[in-house]
Design brief:
Layout: H1 3-19, H2 32-55, H3 59-65, H4 68-95, H5 97-119, H6 123-128, H7 131-159, H8 163-169, H9 175-189, H10 191-198, H11 200-209, H12 219-243, H13 295-320, H14 330-348, H15 357-383, E1 386-396, E2 399-404, E3 409-413, E4 419-422, E5 425-428, E6 437-443, E7 446-452
Parallel strand pairs: 4-7
Antiparallel strand pairs: 1-2, 1-6, 2-3, 4-5, 6-7
Length: 461
Amino acid sequence: MNPFLGVVFHWLGGLASGSFYVPYRGVRRWAWETYWLVGGFFSWIIAPWVLGYLLTNNLLAVLRETPGSAAFMCYFWGAMWGLGGLTFGLTMRYLGMSLGMAVALGYCAAFGTLMPPIFHGEFVSKVLSTDSGLVILAGVGVCLLGIAVAGMAGMSKEREMSDAEKKSAIKEFNFKKGLLVATFSGVMSASFSYGLDAGGPIKEITTQTYGTDALWQGLPVLVLVLLGGFTTNFLWCVLLNVRNKTGYQYLSGATREPFPGREDETIIETAIDAPSEEVVEHIPAAKKSSAKVPLGANYFFCALAGTTWYMQFFFYTMGESQMGEFKFSSWTIHMASIIIFSTLWGIGLREWKGASPRTIRLLTLALAVLVGSTIVVGYGNYLAPEEVKGVVVKVEGTDLVVEKKGGQQETIPVQADTVVSVEGRESRIENLKPKQPVVITRWRDKIRKIEVQLPAADNRP
C-alpha cells in the first residue's frame, strides 16, 4: 500500500480523461454517433480485453469462476453509467457548460465516493469513527468546494460574454429542468464507481487463486463494467445512426449533406468524460456531398481517442490498489484530477483568453483547491492502518511468518515483547502456534495489534 503513489496514478488517469477528446479533433466528416461508437469499441471492448489478457493471469478462467451475482452487478452498473451519459448533454443545454458541469460533477463525486461505504455499512465504523476516515471525508469536502469554485469561474466567464455569445452558449436555459437533469446525470454517472466496487470477488479470484499482481487486480473488473457501458452506448449510437441516416459513414469514402441543425453541436458524454469546451468542438460536416472522407485517418484517430479514454480507468485501478482499506476514496481523487487536467487543456487551447482578472483568480483558486483535495485524501489513506489476515506458519525469533489466503507467505518483523490477543486474553508472540488464524494490524510496518480471533484449528480459514 502506497497512497501517494496511488495519487500519482490517479493524476495520470485524470490526464488521460482530460485528453482523450483531442484525437477526435482529427476526425473529418463523421457524425458524433459514428466516431463515438468507433472509439468506443477501443474504449470498452478492445483495450480492456487486450490489457486484461496481457497483464493478468488466465483472464478467461477468472471470468468463468466469477460468481454470477458479481458479474451481473458489474455489468448492470456499467449500463447505468451509460444511461447517465444520455442525459449529460441536456445538462449543458439547460444550465450551460460551467453551471451544468459543476452540478453534475458535484453529484458524481459525492455519490461515487460515499455510497460504497454506506452500502457496505462501513460509513460510521470506517469513515466517521477513524482519524483517517475523517481526513478522507474532509478531502471529499475540499474536492466539492473546488468543483463549486470551478463552476463560479465558468459562470464569471459567461457573464463577461456578449448577449449574442450567451444566447449561443445557452440556447435553452431552464434552471429547474436543468437541475433535475443534472441530478439524474450526475448520480447515474457515479454508477461506474459502484460497478468497480461490485468487482471485489473478481479481484480476489485473480489475485489469490491465479496469482495476479495486486497492481493489476482491477483489470478483469473493467472488462465487465465497460461491457455494460458499451451496451448502452452501442444502442444509443445505432439509434442515432438510423435516425440521422449516418450509418453509411462506417464504410463510405464519401460524405453526404451536413446534418441539419447539428453542425455546431457540442456534445460531452458523461460526468466522467469532461474535457474542456474547446477540446470537444468538432469540425462540422463537409458542405459538399462529393467531399472525400479519410476513412483510414478517422479510424486511427478514433482508436487513439478510445484507447486514451480507457487509460483513465487503467490508471484508476492501479491507484485504487494502493489505497488499502479506504479505496472508495479513489473516486474523489479521480474526479478532481479530471477537472484539473481538462481545465489545463482549456487554458492551453486559449478557452480563457480575455477573461477578467477576477475570473482568472477564481480559476486559479479552483485548481489549487482541487490539487489540495487529492493531497488531503491521499494523506488520509496514509494515516490508515493496514490489516494482514492469514494463518501462522512459524515464529522465527522476532519474525512471524504468515500465510495469507491463496498461499502467499509474508514475513513480518515483530518485537519479542509484542502482546497477542487470543479471544480477549493476552498472550506473547512466542506462544503463537502453527495454523492459528491471526489478524495483524500495522501502520508503516509498525505492529499495532495481533489478534487470534478463533481457537487454534487444524483447518485453515
